[in-house]
Design goal:
With about 270 residues, this protein is α/β, with parallel strands linked by helices. About 40% of the residues lie in helices and about 20% in strands. The protein has nine helices and eight strands. The protein has an eight-stranded mixed beta sheet, with helices on both faces. The longest helix is centred in the middle third of the chain and has 15 residues. The two termini are about 20 Å apart.
Length: about 270
């Protein structure tokens, strides 16, 4: 059974979920989601692991004021308060970025990384996209300028859940409803202006020395796929896996496949 918990860090109260016993395994959510994106993984893997997910500041049920903070130091505080000395991370998108940044800062505390379509601090950002994707990004910019959060949410669901070149609604039903709900909460959160950014990771990836699995989707942004391949080529011993017919939020689209990959790699 999945249980909830609250952790006070600074003036924030972080909301989390956990289940199971055994080796600690922390799931770090994407920037258009919250801890709920991992419920299939927590339920499936709690027979072998202490599976944990929490909402970062600005997401889900976590409550915070606009104070100076660091996602890396928040994560370290989470480990301290839960009594965890060594952990494996599964991070998607911005959650993958956090997993990398934390591991570079505190390598002795991390035993393995699974990075699902991860962002990487300092990675090159494309200046142009194909015309179809550029049109969607322009529409997103217009919606953000107009503060039309409902429109922003719909476009972001298309870009990240369906895939930037896929038709809107490729992924439908309960998964789409969940993504729209998670992202709407994040979009309506007060903006946090005092985040302390870690040192850029992109040029330090070769310093990572632990088992790493990188997973990405065939339908994701091309620059995300290229970054994933770069991670595999640059991190010593890293493994890579492309999942056909999926976009950015792979564990939502293919939970059984991702669960098997996690078991095989972490086991």
């Amino acid at each position: 059974m999945i249980e909830t918990f609250k952790l006070k860090i600074g003036n924030a109260q972080l909301a989390g979920e956990h289940s199971g016993e055994g080796r600690p395994l922390i799931f770090l959510h994407a920037g258009v989601a919250d801890k709920r994106m991992w419920r299939h993984q927590i339920a499936e893997l709690s027979d072998s692991y202490q599976a944990i997910a929490y909402d970062r500041r600005g997401f889900g049920e976590t409550i915070t004021s606009d104070e100076a903070f660091s996602h890396v130091e928040d994560l370290r505080a989470v480990l301290d308060q839960l009594g965890i000395s060594t952990v494996s991370f599964v991070g998607c998108s911005q959650g993958g970025r956090l997993a990398i940044d934390f591991t570079l800062a505190y390598p002795q505390q991390v035993s393995a990384l699974v990075l699902i379509a991860p962002a990487v601090s300092g990675a090159p950002v494309p200046e142009t996209f194909t015309p179809d994707i550029q049109a969607r990004i322009a529409a997103l910019d217009d919606a953000e300028e107009a503060n039309n959060l409902e429109r922003v949410n719909m476009i972001e669901a298309n870009l990240w859940l369906d895939g930037p070149s896929s038709p809107a609604g490729r992924v439908s039903g309960a998964l789409r409803d969940l993504l729209l709900d998670m992202n709407e909460i994040a979009l309506r959160m007060p903006i946090l202006t005092q985040e302390i950014e870690p040192a850029l990771a992109y040029k330090r990836l070769a310093d990572l020395s632990l088992p790493v699995l990188v997973i990405w989707g065939e339908l994701d942004f091309s620059h995300v796929q290229e970054c994933c391949r770069y991670l595999v080529d640059t991190i010593p011993g890293a493994r890579g896996k492309e999942i056909p017919g999926t976009a950015h939020l792979l564990n939502l689209e293919q939970p059984a496949m991702i669960n098997k990959l996690l078991r095989d790699f972490l086991g």
